[in-house]
Amino acid sequence: xxxxxxxxxxxxxxxxxxxxxxxxxxxxxxxxxxxxxxxxxxxxxxxxxxxxxxxxxxxxxxxxxxxxxxxxxxxxxxxxxxxxxxxxxxxxxxxxxxxxxxxxxxxxxxxxxxxxxxxxxxxxxxxxxxxxxxxxxxxxxxxxxxxxxxxxxxxxxxxxxxxxxxxxxxxxxxxxxxxxxxxxxxxxxxxxxxxxxxxxxxxxxxxxxxxxxxxxxxxxxxxxxxxxxxxxxxxxxxxxxxxx
Amino acid sequence: xxxxxxxxxxxxxxxxxxxxxxxxxxxxxxxxxxxxxxxxxxxxxxxxxxxxxxxxxxxxxxxxxxxxxxxxxxxxxxxxxxxxxxxxxxxxxxxxxxxxxxxxxxxxxxxxxxxxxxxxxxxxxxxxxxxxxxxxxxxxxxxxxxxxxxxxxxxxxxxxxxxxxxxxxxxxxxxxxxxxxxxxxxxxxxxxxxxxxxxxxxxxxxxxxxxxxxxxxxxxxxxxxx
Amino acid sequence: xxxxxxxxxxxxxxxxxxxxxxxxxxxxxxxxxxxxxxxxxxxxxxxxxxxxxxx
Lengths: 244, 226, 55
Prior knowledge:
The complex is a heterotrimer.
Chain A: H1 2-8, H2 11-43, H3 57-84, H4 87-119, H5 127-148, H6 152-166, H7 169-179, H8 199-231, H9 236-243
Helix pairs in contact in A: 2-8, 3-4, 3-6, 3-8, 4-5, 4-8, 5-6, 5-7
Chain B: H1 5-22, H2 24-45, H3 49-71, H4 73-82, H5 84-90, H6 95-109, H7 111-125, H8 132-157, H9 163-191, H10 196-225
Helix pairs in contact in B: 1-6, 2-3, 2-7, 3-7, 3-8, 3-9, 6-8, 6-10, 7-8, 8-9, 8-10, 9-10
Chain C: H1 2-6, H2 11-54
């Protein structure tokens, strides 16, 4: 079983696996997101406090979870690449940045549209919103740093270091609602007493969460193929891969 | 003649300080910038002193942040340009020692200087003298943390085109907790509520950065110098 | 059915919200495929140049 991990360090193996998995991941994502949307928009009852507006949870919360998860994956991939000098790690990190940044933007915009009817404002300088905005800046910083270097290998390593340094922001985003008095509501799903949401509302949300994760995986598979190609252009296996 | 790590640290520190004081005009620049920026706010906003006082901690901190950013250039650049940095890296003491010495020297001539000038600026912005102790302490902790964040950022961006803009893009998001706690501490001192919490958090951030940042900055330099 | 579209009066927040989410999803798919295509083209070009050099 551990040999599978070793294979993951091999660029042609990753390229092949990504190419094969992508369609399945897209299909699974479509199914789970489809169910989530239908159930969330059509079946779940309106919230007694927020009415129909609460339905924005079905894109906002999964996007928020993804924005932080993708950054963490990027940081882990970067650390692996830096410590063990596994170039595939850089490919995974580079592929993840635009996806994570777009989900962070989705979080901020959907949250803003949700905030207006609920809190009366499109924006507040509150700990969770601010730290999510910082997360977006960190993504942009990592992207800019990587592209600022003429030597792509050096750019990869510099961006990887920045990604690892910036990961301190991730616990801040998560715990901001616990540590500070925040406008944003606290945890409703992961609590010690179990989820505080009724099942009819919860299942579509979990499905959307899973769907977004699968979607990230699918898009990652597409992007990582390109990133691997960019880094391995001189290799023999690339000849075969490109001919097809 | 072989030199121990601690001696090497002090030697480099002394060298940095001596070099800095050889050009006093260079030392004054971040301070002058600090003064100018803090003047810009009341001029641009044309508010009464009472309103200005409410904004004072934030204005002070943003100005300190920007002044520190400006001065970070000097941390590694001239040594990187003439090859001294590579020589120091090859010296056998490890880049971490070099980085610690240079960053501490940088803070002593920049951050500490800002802290010493802050009472003047604070008075100009309307901060009452009772809040000065908190202001000074929070600025001291904050500028030290900033010097470290800047060391990491500068290490990553030496020699890049438009490295300055990139440096700001990297350092500012990482520095926002500092701004929030630092300005918050001074604010609370002014309104009379307890400052201990904010100061402890600032101190915690400072300790965290002082212990981990040297390794990150050394790693950054290693990537750039290779 | 009209209640569905009006979303209890919140329609002007809810629907743009989902629309933006759909936009981000679509952009991700489009952008990823474009970058893979560009990478393939660059690799093919590099190989063509290399084989020309060795001839």
